[in-house]
Every structure is written in structure tokens, then in C-alpha cells.
Amino acid sequence: MSPSFPLLFFLSLLSLLSLSLSQPRGILIDCGATVGSTIDGLEWLPDGNFVSSGTPRNLTMPVLVPILSTVRSFPLENNLNRKFCYEVQVFRGAKYLVRTTYFYGGINGRDSPPVFDQIVDGTLWRVVNTTEDYARNMSSYYEGVFLAQGKTMSVCIAANRFTISDPFISALEFVILGDSLYNSTDFGKYGLSLVARHSFGYSGPLIRYPDDQFDRFWEPFDQSDSTVVSNRNISVSGFWNLPPSRIFDTKLTSGQSEALELRWPSWPLPSTMYYIALYFADDRDSSFEGSRVLNISINHVTYFGNLNVTPAGVTVFATQWPLSGLTTITLSPTANSNGGSSINAGEVFEVLALGGRTTTRDVIALETIKNSLQNPPLDWNGDPCLPREYRWTGVTCSEGPRIRVITINLTSMGLVGSLSPSVARLTALTGIWLGNNSLSGSLPDLSSLKILEIL
Q1: Could you tell me where this protein is found in the cell (predicted)?
Q2: pLDDT band at 230; cut points 50, 70, 90
Q3: Are residues 151 and 265 in the same domain?
């Protein structure tokens, strides 16, 4: 597949859609905490109202960041294919930055942290492997951008075949993004999973809230032989993706008429499609005669030609660009450019094909059945059918684009409670097995289940 062409946008302030003042900026969850806290002006909530399984635990080792002092861990036991989910009420149709944070702290009594999966709604998001960071006494975070397709979103932790001890999580964040951010992506079909976000030429701590109104993390990327510090204040109101103005305080640059070669991201990438955004601003005074004009290539393929870098700044992005292995970005001044190459910041996201969703009526019916049981299976959270390797215990589902629940087998699970009449709304059911439990009450009317074969 040929690469899509990047788009260049010079946006006026009037063309940007800002967040409604009535909407909260998001929900920040301190996993394992029993009381809320305020840290650096941000309100963190305890996690008890968002998750129904797992064990809150306190780390015994000292930490520099308060939210890393607690975790919630989830039982591994013998069943690997179980997920444990946080469910958060969201604004349907809003775009969310979702961030998970992990710091092991030795809670499982092993030297190394477990490896496990994380899931958003019905999509397998990433494998969580914090081993290298933890060996350096560092936390790890994962960030993605997803559309709220319902009134709730779920983020789930799930053991995989590499998991050898209880999975855990330290913090979970849902931040509402402005309408203009990353909006060339079809979020009905895709999500974005952060690979790298760097402020080039910068060597300080993370740039984040309050400098970034959406609390995105901009990591330092210093290359001392080509770093320049700028003293100009850049207005970002017209920038696509609304980056923080601080990322324009520094840049990587080359000499007059010289190309700048940037090995970034600095690690090999799996072969797939990526969203790439690059940010530029000329720090010379607007009265300076001449323009800085660049040709940009990625792995020797033209990304953008004749980019005019002005003092007002510009963002160049590609919605789906193929990358594989190590990546080299080359910035070359054109023959008529007055000045060398320069770049201020960049973002790369992996483009994730969404896994879909179980039919809403089936989800609602199963949730009602769950609520009628005093001790439902621990993993009855999140999407019942997806990802398929992590469907709910005892539930099987149909194939194809419209996902329906087709059997429920809860035999010998020691269940207590009653069978909700909502089971009659699962009209694709072919079989129900409930034997050897302690259920009470009468059997609901199942006449609507026209293809039910086994009861």
C-alpha cells in the first residue's frame, strides 16, 4: 500500500473547536487508593467506584510520585484468559486521551514485574512490559486516543501466556480532547496508541499540564550538537493538535544549507501504519528577509516538499504512514531556503484497528443478569465478547460484524441469586446451562428465544 500524503494546515483561531466549559477535563483514577488527593492542581479519585475486582495494595518502598504508592492487583490463579476491567462513565462521541501508569514496587514478591495485556473496550491495546523501566526504578505509562462509542468506556488488565504473577495497575486517566486534535483519523474504525512524543533539543523534565492543557507528556530529546534554545514566545492557538508553546523553546537545527538527519523514534518499530505529526516554527523575527523552506523525507520517501517554516509555525501530519524497523527523518533545505533545517517536536502513534463491540442490547441484558447474581464471575466486566480471547467466563459469541451472545454456560460455578428476566432479551441464544448452582426464584418467560435449543 502506498503511503498517504501528509496534510499541511495553517489554522486560524476561529477554525479551532474548543472544549465546552461545561465538560470536565477528565477523570483521574489513583488505582488502589482509598481516599482522593490533589496533586499539582489535579484531582485524583480513589478507584473503588470504577472496578469490582482485584485487591488494593500499598507499596512498601518509597516513591517520588504519590499516585505510585498504591496499586490494584488482580488474581492470576489458573485461568489466564480473564480480564479485569475499570468502567468509567464518559460523554458518548467525545474523544479521550486514555493513559495507564504502572510501577511494580515488588508487590508480588518477585524481582521482575509481570507481563500482561491491556484492553480498551473490545480492542486489545498493548502488551504491558515494564521490566526495563522498573530495573531503572522508573514507572511506565501507555497512552492512546479513543472515541467514546457508548456511555461508558472500559480499560481492562488481562493475563496472557507470558504472565507469571498477578497483573496490576497504578493509575488510569481519561482526558477529553478538543475536537481538532488528531481529527483526520476515523475514530469509528481506529484508535491511536502512542509510540513517541518528544520536544526536540530539550533536556529537562516532562512537559505536561499546566503547559499542555490536555496533559499530554512531551519527553525530552536532546542532541547537543544540533540543539538551539529560542527566546521567542510562539502562539499555538492556530496549531493543528494544539501543542504546548513550551515545545517551541528549543529545536534541533543544522547549519546553513545543511540537511538534518534525525533517527527518531530511536528504537525499531513493528511493520504497520502510523500517525505522524511534526511541529515547526522559525524563531527568527518576522521582519527577517527570506524563508526557511524544507523538504522532508522519512526513510528516503518524500513526506512533504517545499515546507515554508514561518514564525507563526506549522504542523505537518500523515494519518496513515507505513513504518518498519528503525526510522530516519531527513530535513533538507531547498535551494531557495534562507537558513538551515530545524524541527521543534514530533508525535508518532500506531494506528490500531478497533476490535468492535458486542451488540448493545446483549451487553445491557448481560449486565442486568450480572446484577441479579450475588457472586457473578470476577471477569464479568468490560465487553462480554471482545477481544475474543478474553470473552466473559461462560459466554460464547457469534462471528461476523454483528456480535451476539449465543450461549451461556455457568454450570457448577456456585452462583447465588436469581436469573433476571433480561435473559429473554438475548434473542440469539441457542443454549443456557445453569445447573449445580444455588439460584432461587422462578424461571423467566423465555418464549422470545426462538432458536433456543438447550436449557
Answers
A1: Membrane
A2: low
A3: no
